[in-house]
Amino acid sequence: MPAMIGALMILGAMSCPARAQQGGADWDARIIHSSGSVTVLLASEGALKPFLAEDGLPLSPGDSVKTGHDGSALLTLSGVHSITLLRDSKIKISSVAKSETLLDLAFGRMLAFISPLVEGQKLSVETPQAVAAVRGTEFGVDAAASGSSVGVFDEGHVDVFNPAGKVMIGPNQETSIAPGRPPREPRALTNRFLRYRPFLKRLREQWRQLRRAWPRYAKLDRRVLRRRFMATRRRRPLLRGRRPAFGLPRKDRASGRGGRRRGRP
Questions:
Q1: Contact 9, 95 (CB under 8 A)
Q2: Which among 73, 147, 237, 253 is least buried, having the fewest CB atoms inside 10 angstroms?
Q3: Which domains does the chain have, with CATH numbers?
Q4: Model-level pTM?
Q5: Nearest to 215 by CA among 176, 178, 258
Q6: How far apart are CA 49 and CA 42, in angstroms?
Q7: pLDDT digits (tens, 9 = 90+) for 227-263
């Protein structure tokens, strides 16, 4: 029996959108920070193998980011939405259209801070088992072939459903979904998500810094950076431990705007 591929649909029903959400038909997806082992496959450029990721690198539909056992990465959509990919995880950028944003979490764990979406905007995350409609800004997803879990932290509600059933989880609740089974009844957050609570304050501040710094990132030409990245990789392999950045100038990184994170969840 073929595996069922679900989607975690993140729908914002709140008003008062940020100005950055109103411009353009697509989000500007980028890797902002990475630490440890993080690789990127630019499939949209015809790349056949992954390379070591670089801070500030723009991402396009078809690209994927993978973290190793010691890796983590911060992705952004136009500085408005923040996705933290934890270790041993892989995510694919399937669509950056604001009308139907699609991220595919093949396996691993992610934490997301999603700003209010306006009417006509949708953002979804695919996992192997379920579909969740998220009404809030802070949530986590854990995906594996054996099952997926969705947890809401301090605000918002999430409808989690598949052909076998549907549940709604609220603040400080989670649900899990086994292959071919309905989502479990909501329960209080377990250690699956509670273990990330100590990092939430830091991640919130990181999200706020990213939004303040975004205008500088937005001025960096996406096409030029992607061409430079691919040209460098085709000329010579990236030396082990060397990770040149396409992000903000050093003075901005040193001030906490655009710099590499200390530590990792």
A1: no
A2: 237
A3: 8-229 (2.60.120.1440)
A4: 0.80
A5: 258
A6: 8
A7: 888 887 765 444 444 444 555 544 444 444 444 444 4
